[in-house]
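Backbone shape codes:
===
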Amino acid sequence: MTYPLQTLLSTLEDCTPTVTYHGAINADLQNMLRVILEEHTERMEIPKLARKRMLGLSVECLHNLYHHAEDREDAGLGTEQVFFSVGRKKNRCYIACGNFVSESVARFLEKRLGQLKAMSSTELHSHFLDTLAHPGRSTKGGGGLGLVEMMRKTDRNIDFSLRQHHANRYYFMLVLNLPEPQ
């Protein structure tokens, strides 16, 4: 489901962030945020498996932010608009990230996330295996498994927002709500 950006940000208001970042992103910063996140999650009182899941999904989100940075630069928007946050909300963990995308990418993401959310766990698993068996590459070099893995590891508990910024540029925000740690 698509939610307004303010609604998604307000859902983070009662959260306890572990790591939050807003600004430019490059390969060095992506790695630094990963290291910081690893250090901070070690101190979180969550089971090792949940911590590993959070770190894996965080790395995927950071990877996506980094590889789509050129969208912001092409639009003359600068690189200060990347948003990334990881933390806890009551007894659950969340990961939130956002960046600018073109209108065509926004429509693709909206359609793709809707399709994936509509799949059952079994269908997602089959889709994952099919994508592995018949890999394709996007113009960014991705194989299409990132969103599928996010859906699988959050049990499809993902919210997103697309907000038109100007002309054909949208701000895309994704919030992954991780299952309760066991």
In short: The domain at 5-177 is CATH 3.30.565.10 (Heat Shock Protein 90). The beta strands are 16-23, 82-89, 92-102, 158-166, 169-177. The mean pLDDT is 81.
